[in-house]
Amino acid sequence: MSDPLLVEAEPYAYGFDPRHTALLVIDMQRDFVEPGGFGETLGNDVTMLRRVIPPLRDTLAATRAAGITVIHTREGHKPDLSDCPPAKLNRGAPSLRIGDPGPKGRILIRGEYGHDIIDELAPVDGELVVDKPGKGSFYATGLDETLKQAGIRSLVVTGVTTEVCVHTTVREANDRGYECLVLSDCVGSYFEEFQRYGLQMIAAQGGIFGWVAPAAHYIKALETRS
Ligand code: C5J
């Protein structure tokens, strides 16, 4: 077995074997990142999330060049909403509800333009796209089985939003035995304080949910291999 690659991270160095690692890109969909989608209907300033696009594009390029598995997720629901619990559908007072027609198609519905991943981070051939009805990537998706079959033990986690789908996914993954490295500048929140505290909560207490590092540290670790 070869030595693991080491990433300078909080709370201490993160070691991973690229053959047993996947990059997870969570919900980089127009519905969250562009005006007229789900994120905006909830009253959020979606431009806050766009800052993750350049570092995430670099991270994707380095990951693909290293031959590491890339998996994308999309939050959304079937057109008949049969997989959307009433508690989610009726929550709060959004300007449009899930399933309503919006400028980018029906809000958060599979197959609609707004539901798809932004052009800048579009999946390439061979990359898995996991459609999920919940905030976590493991709930009702079969992701755990897919990762286990592929021998994946380490997850490099990116995407939006830090405190919702990224956090839920990292917690689910941690409980299932995966070692998660969250790339601090490749995850984004609509709220500055949630970004800060969300990242601190992952690495606190000796890495209670995982590790945190900027994308440059992960990319540097990949470069030491070549
Ligand atoms: C939210 C997500 N924030 N992808 N979804 O509702 O984080």
Description:
This protein is of the alpha/beta class. The chain has one domain: Isochorismatase-like (Rossmann fold), CATH 3.40.50. Helices cover 32% and strands 21% of the residues. The protein is built from eight helices and ten strands. The strands form three sheets. It has a six-stranded parallel β-sheet, with helices on both faces. Helix 3 runs parallel beside helix 8 and helix 6 packs parallel to helix 7. The longest helix has 16 residues. The chain is globular. The two termini are 17 Å apart. The mean pLDDT is 97. It binds dicarbonimidic diamide. The site of dicarbonimidic diamide (C5J) has 8 residues, from helix 6. GO terms for molecular function: hydrolase activity.
Secondary-structure-based class equals: alpha/beta
CATH superfamily: Isochorismatase-like
Mean pLDDT: 97
Order of helices and strands: EEEHHHEHEEEHEHEHEH
How many strands appear in the DSSP assignment?
Answer: 10
Oligomer: single chain
Q: Mind summarizing the main beta sheet?
A: 6 strands, parallel
Helix % is: 25-40%
Low-confidence runs of at least 5 consecutive residues: none
Give the overall shape, derived from the CA principal axes. Answer: globular
Keywords: Hydrolase
InterPro entries: Isochorismatase-like_dom, Isochorismatase-like_hydrls, Isochorismatase-like_sf
Domain Isochorismatase-like: 21-208
Protein name: Nicotinamidase-related amidase
